[in-house]
From TrEMBL, chains A, B:
Signal sequence extent: none
Protein name (Swiss-Prot/TrEMBL): Putative NagC family transcriptional regulator
Compositional bias per record (Low complexity), positions renumbered to this chain: 1-11
Organism: Arthrobacter globiformis (strain ATCC 8010 / DSM 20124 / JCM 1332 / NBRC 12137 / NCIMB 8907 / NRRL B-2979 / 168)
Alphabetized PANTHER family for the sequence: BIFUNCTIONAL UDP-N-ACETYLGLUCOSAMINE 2-EPIMERASE_N-ACETYLMANNOSAMINE KINASE, ROK (REPRESSOR, ORF, KINASE) FAMILY
Family indicated by similarity: Belongs to the ROK (NagC/XylR) family.
Entry-linked Pfam families: ROK (PF00480)
Region annotated Disordered, chain positions: 1-22
InterPro entries: ATPase_NBD, ROK, WH-like_DNA-bd_sf, WH_DNA-bd_sf
DNA sequence: TTCGTTTGGTGTCCCAGAGAACATAACACC
DNA sequence: GGTGTTATGTTCTCTGGGACACCAAACGAA
């Protein structure tokens, strides 16, 4: 039911203003449905702590705007009247953009973290910020008709491998892309015509794993990704992403792990990402490069003692970084992605043992190492989460003002 | 004005139940007044974003319960009707307890972080958990008459140098005290008759510095304290204390800073607190021990090159730990307390330069090293914050149910 | 079939915050 | 030293929104 029109002299503010309490509750329900993909009304009632009747009203309001829809209850073997199931609308979606050294990937992601479409645009050389924005805008332009007809886009999220200030979406420094002080979010927003935000790739990955992946249901998580160009980290503490003063927090790739280690491109020495790198492994294997699964195959196939030694050397340094992380964050889950996941898969108990013996007893007992669960969709889901953020903070306000209110 | 009695059939729940929104706003105002000590009604209106009239009602409610009081405006040179000033009631207080290896300190702290009383009970030997609890309970018993007559005690907070689970106030491991799995909060609660909570000392210190000290007005802060028994850390990110899964987060004293370093009592090697310790300094100075100011004097007085070299050695390791912290948390402030503060005071620019050259450019530019601002009251204020926690979360509910509602 | 159980739906009640209008107390300017 | 301006406290009314009670509906169990 729509809210009745106000009789009193209309205030200057647009009519989108909603009571904070109501907005909160609508946001809460939308987020829950987004995170769980399906949730019965009864479950929503329990999780929100709100009254049955209130939850009913809220869902009615969301359903009227086409943000969620209800389906007949699946007769679970339970006593009592069955509760209808609430799902996120498949028409709400966000765009995800991920620039890398050899490609720009663009994705279309639904609420619930469902990747509808993923387009990888390979580039001849490392794309500049301008080029990456142009590629993304062009791909989005190509989808425009489809987007306009079948979707309501809440925004674009850009995952950047580097230091990003998420407040204004400016890339302060992305060493491997060679970007410096690029206002990527503003550029892409102007080029594509959607609201746009940017953040560090590993931070977004951590959030994605928290919501839909190996960290689901947890509140404290450390995510580490080993890629071709270095090691990125994202930390979730108390259910919230660690941002820091300017959003630069989480750079675990530059954890100190070795006295008089090699010089890192960051200027310091002994950084995790200079000592632990897939480049060293490929070099030892005599391969010129490849992706993660090729690396794992090659490592498993190799009988070379030099390779084995290098693996155990890298595991040692990784354990030091993880020891620090465990003592510092007391996480429930440590997620290793990319080639770090490969290293772990090769000798899981070796790393577990190192960690258990080096970290403080209390925190060490609780920290479980896991490989990433979301695979190749991870970064799309994480970036899309950025594109959903403003929508999820105020679903109805966003739809009635920020988007065309096309009925389903 | 008291809330009018409900006419409808009284529900089973006690009449203390309050609308969540109202409770939130009351808590918000109480916390603001607590943090700022004095705040005009106009300032409260701006900070809360609530309506003038609403703020008036809320303050009226708090004043009626004797939680805050208003005083005549101090005619600040400002146009317009002056706004009365709101201050926390001096009758609301929390107890603070801090067991150390050679003493148990008990404090009485008002809202606003005013330490009314501090009693240091020196012990012959390291107190057991039972002994520390008995000492605290005895001292509190001694104050009982005064407490009952002049104060309303919201609770006891215990700061423990070690791993503490703040959920149940159990000390998992306090190596220097030799405590293991001691339910300190429960023990003291039973012995003293007040609600009691316990947490890590450095975490509480970090909170105290955030609210009243060098981190006031900031949201991201790293606190490091160098004491006789090691180095403790507390981290505040996004305005919230880092807790981790069981509240063990923040153990920066066991950050890895040196390959093939000495073995730490925690089992690992190369920990910050084994390489950087005031014991080494006292040893080199040929002094058997002393407090922080004595150390500073002795270090400044000494012309020995060995001492100078040790100082620079320790600064180097400290810089490595701080580098990690800056890259990981992107804090605005790093607070160095205890002998770490002394080390910094001896060569501030040396540490600043090391940090600037080693940490990532973005985060490094923002992180400012500061000495602690709260001095010897720091731990009392921090522990008291724990004792205030439940009160601040629901001020009126707490007073009408949890405390005798003695009118002022 | 009947009963107990769980849930959705509807109507009522009332708290709590917003806002307008008025009152009040300072400064500023002539 | 009046008068205007500005900022704030005070009072009153209005309304949104959640809780609750009651009833209806839909399921399992006996």
């Amino acid at each position: 039911m729509m809210s009745s029109p106000r009789q009193r002299a209309a205030p200057a503010a647009p009519p989108s203003e909603l009571d904070p309490s109501r907005r909160n509750n609508l946001a809460l329900i939308t987020s829950l449905v987004h995170h769980h993909r399906v949730l019965s009304r009864a479950q929503l009632t329990k999780r929100t702590g709100l009254n049955r009747s209130t939850v009913g009203t809220l869902i009615g309001q969301l359903a009227a705007l086409g943000l969620v829809y209800e389906t007949a209850p699946t007769g679970g073997a339970q006593v009592g009247r069955p509760s209808p199931e609430v799902r996120p609308s498949p028409s709400i979606a966000a765009l995800a953009v991920y620039p890398e050294i050899d490609a720009v990937t663009i994705g279309l992601v639904n609420l619930g973290g469902i990747v509808q479409k993923k387009i990888r645009f390979a580039t001849e050389r490392i794309p500049s910020a301008r080029e990456a924005v142009n590629i993304a805008a062009a791909v989005i332009e190509g989808m425009r008709t489809e987007l306009d007809h079948s979707y309501r886009i809440t925004g674009i999220g850009v995952a950047v491998p580097g230091l990003v200030n998420p407040d204004d979406g400016t890339v302060r420094h992305a060493p491997h892309l060679g970007w410096r002080d690029e206002p990527v979010a503003r550029m892409l927003s102007e080029a594509a015509g959607y609201a746009c935000q940017a953040a560090n790739d590993a931070s977004l990955a951590a959030e994605a794993e928290l919501i839909f992946g190996a960290g689901a249901g947890r509140d404290n998580l450390v995510y580490l990704n080993g890629g071709a160009s270095g090691i990125g980290g994202g930390i979730i503490s108390n259910g919230m992403l660690l941002r820091g003063a300017s959003g630069y927090a989480g750079e675990l790739g530059h954890t100190f792990v070795r006295t008089s280690g090699e010089q890192c491109h960051c200027g310091a020495t002994g950084c995790l990402e200079t000592e632990v790198s897939q480049g060293r492994l490929f070099e030892l294997l005599g391969v010129s490069g490849g992706d993660t699964s090729q690396l794992e195959q090659a490592l498993r196939a190799s009988g070379s003692p030099a390779v084995a030694e290098e693996i155990s050397r890298q595991l040692g340094f990784l354990a030091i970084a993880l020891r620090n992380a465990v003592n510092t964050f007391n996480p429930e889950v440590i997620i290793l992605d990319g080639f770090l996941g490969v290293l772990y898969a090769l000798a899981p108990s070796a790393l577990d043992d190192l960690l258990l013996s080096q970290a403080l007893d209390g925190p060490a007992a609780q920290a479980k190492v896991h490989p990433a669960a979301l695979g190749s969709n991870l970064m799309m889901i994480g970036a899309a989460e950025l594109g959903f953020a403003r929508f999820l903070a105020d679903p109805t306000g966003f739809v009635t003002t920020g988007l065309g209110s096309a009925a389903e």
